[in-house]
């Protein structure tokens, strides 16, 4: 068994990489960067690290496959036992390397130099990919890093500047994580953080806690924010085009002047949110809660609002032309100068539950019906 073990270990021992191979890789990286006056050999260290990483993965795959073949071909208990021990020893060695890499990366996060901190962030992201079981712990570490750098508790919102470079790097790593490996009960915490002007395009942020966060002018196009907590968050002037916000919590969030075109807000809670002058054309708002919401000046052209609740919402000068309003609750909503032309499935009884419905803008056919129908009788009075 010792002989077999030594033989297998010799097969996976790292061999030095020839300088010619490293130089060729460095030249390839230099060309990918567009060439220029920079010496191709400047990429020597980066090329060496890439080659070593690729060789390590290749050796691991080869070793594990070799163990499987040995165990499959030899049926004696001793051989199986010996192969299993060899496998465990190899796995323990790998775990030790992961731990060492993790420790070094954590130390880098506390460095005074920003470039070293960013290097530590990307090293942690690499570990999360190499060792999925450590992925969640690493994402929590990166979230804690962002909270520490960008905390806004007790700060004047007017004094908040764009997100810092190293915090953006950590946020990017979080946004690229594989959410299919996580437990549904796990929530990353980015609450009370300044993420102003953050680049979060196509970010995976479902179930993330972003309550009370500042996301002013943030780019969240095509991001996944399903089930996210954005209550009291400030998303003024942010771009959420085609963003998924299914069942998200946006209670009292500031979404004024925000672009939510073609966003999915199915069953989201936007009660008491500020959506003044927001763009929601083509948005999905089915069964969405919009009670006491400020939608003054909002554009909801062609939006799907089937089953939504807009009770006591402010729809002053809102444009709902072409929207689907089947089953929408407009009780107590302010329809002053709201545009309902070409809407679908809008009924007279819905309109007359609202306030200032007489001042709304309707198709001629609806307008005639509204004027033809007698006013609703006050409750508690019979026919005279």
UniProtKB/TrEMBL annotation:
Task: Please tell me whether the keyword Ion transport is annotated for this protein.
Answer: no
Transmembrane segments annotated in the record for this chain: 66-88
Swiss-Prot/TrEMBL keywords: Membrane, Transmembrane, Transmembrane helix
InterPro entries registered for this protein in UniProt: 5peptide_repeat, Pentapeptide-BTB/POZ_domain
Origin: domain of life: Bacteria
Cite the SUPFAM superfamilies for this sequence.
Pentapeptide repeat-like
Gene3D superfamilies, from UniProt? E3 ubiquitin-protein ligase SopA
Pfam families linked to this entry = Pentapeptide (PF00805)
* Protein name stated in the entry: Pentapeptide repeat-containing protein
**Which organism is this entry from?**
Chamaesiphon polymorphus CCALA 037
């Amino acid at each position: 068994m010792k002989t077999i073990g030594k033989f297998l270990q010799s097969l996976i021992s790292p061999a030095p990489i020839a300088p010619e191979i490293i130089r060729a890789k460095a030249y390839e990286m230099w060309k990918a960067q567009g060439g220029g006056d920079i010496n191709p050999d400047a990429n020597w260290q980066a090329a060496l690290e890439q080659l070593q990483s690729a060789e390590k993965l290749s050796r691991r795959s080869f070793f594990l496959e070799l163990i499987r073949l040995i165990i499959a071909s030899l049926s004696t208990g001793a051989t199986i036992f010996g192969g299993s021990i060899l496998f465990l020893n190899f796995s323990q060695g790998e775990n030790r390397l992961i731990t060492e890499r993790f420790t070094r990366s954590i130390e880098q996060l506390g460095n005074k130099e920003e470039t070293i901190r960013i290097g530590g962030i990307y090293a942690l992201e690499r570990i999360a990919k190499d060792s999925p079981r450590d992925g969640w712990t690493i994402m929590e570490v990166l979230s804690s890093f962002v909270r520490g750098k960008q905390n806004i508790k007790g700060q004047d919102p007017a004094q908040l500047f764009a997100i810092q470079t190293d915090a953006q790097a950590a946020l990017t790593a979080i946004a690229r994580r594989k959410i299919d490996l996580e437990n549904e009960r796990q929530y990353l915490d980015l609450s009370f953080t300044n993420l102003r002007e953050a680049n979060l395009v196509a970010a995976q942020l479902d179930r993330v806690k972003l309550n009370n966060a500042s996301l002013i002018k943030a780019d969240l196009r095509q991001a996944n924010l399903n089930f996210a907590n954005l209550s009291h968050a400030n998303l003024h002037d942010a771009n959420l085009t085609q963003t998924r916000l299914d069942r998200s919590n946006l209670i009292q969030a500031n979404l004024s002047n925000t672009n939510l075109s073609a966003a999915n807000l199915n069953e989201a809670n936007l009660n008491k949110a500020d959506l003044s002058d927001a763009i929601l054309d083509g948005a999905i708002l089915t069964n969405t809660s919009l009670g006491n919401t400020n939608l003054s000046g909002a554009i909801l052209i062609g939006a799907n609002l089937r089953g939504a609740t807009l009770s006591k919402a402010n729809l002053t000068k809102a444009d709902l032309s072409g929207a689907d309003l089947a089953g929408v609750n407009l009780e107590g909503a302010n329809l002053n100068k709201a545009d309902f032309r070409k809407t679908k499935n809008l009924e007279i009884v819905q309109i007359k539950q609202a306030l200032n419905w007489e001042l709304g803008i309707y198709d001629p056919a609806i307008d005639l019906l509204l004027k033809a129908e007698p006013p609703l009788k006050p409750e508690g009075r019979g026919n005279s």
